[in-house]
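Troubleshooting: if your tokenizer reports a length mismatch, compare your output against this known-good record of 389 residues.
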Amino acid sequence: MNGNLRVGNLFGIPFFINVSWFFVLALVTLNFGSGLAARFPGLGGQAWSLGLVSGLLLFASVLLHELGHSFAAKQQGIGVNSITLFLFGGLANLEDEAKTPAGAFWIAVAGPLVSLALFGLLLLVSGSGLVVGPMAAIVGLLAYINLTLAAFNMIPGLPLDGGNVLKAAVWKITGNRYRGIRWASRMGQLLGWSAVLLGALSVLGISNVGSFWTLIIGWFLLQNAGQSAQSATIQEALSGLTAADAVLEKSPIISVDNTLRELADVAVISRGNDQWRRFLVQDSQAQLAGTISLDALQTMPSSQWSDYRVRDFLQPIAQEIQVQSDKPLLDVMGQLEKQGVQALTVIRANGTLMGLLEKAQIINLLQQKAVSQPVYTKLIARLTSESLR
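Known-good structure output:
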């Protein structure tokens, strides 16, 4: 998400606050403060200070909810990239998904279980007499807010925790993780459209059920459920494929022993009008030696191109943009996005150079599947719009 401010680390997990969080904090402070002022008139200006404290404690509850997910993921060896508080609550960004339905289930329910534990603890404190007056009211309110948080999140539709529980259940029954995601995404979209409808009717004054916030939450559910469905479709389409399946048949490869004249000739005939600007270079053992740019040809008159070899203009290639040929194509997609590049160099298990993998070639693989499964057509259009080359 854009507009995130890093606050620090929690148990080694980067912690961010989105700018939208401050807006919600202000609303919560106003709501809680006015409620306390009405219930305890003697508080005066302190009501707003206590309202702010209540808002911060509310988001502390949300943070603990997300830490529940994070700790459950770490127990399964899954890293946590970050935790972010934003307009609609919190988000724990995991490095990977659970490997089993049971693992997915426990990660999903860990957050609501923390919220339920907070509900029980806060309810016990509020009824124990340890806190009285305004603080007792705040603790009691936070207790039921945590109960509501747990119940709301267990609604069976992505991106809510209940949607991930549904995903795990369908995955367990069918043996297909992607089918589980699609089912949970459809439920999320159904819930989203229902919330949007109720919210719209309420805003128009036609219904007393719902509110403007119902409409906003419905929109949020729609957006995220749709993205989950698309992601699952892409993952299923590319499952079982490796980097080797997406290597260009005529990759731009040249030998270190070739002259610049030979490089120029190969560059002209290799792609016609769409000329390669950079070539992978291999040595006599077919090992990757580096890269060479066609800009090297401009460093001297063409009459001298035959006097110099490719090895004289080698440039190193970063390890981060190299990939093993047997790496799953799904992981390759992640690497392309992480590195912010359009192509990766593919290396065989024995260390020899296989060729170049471009995002455009992954699009071609999806297009082949679209012939028999039109559901991929929209995905192709979306990926193509991202300017893959």
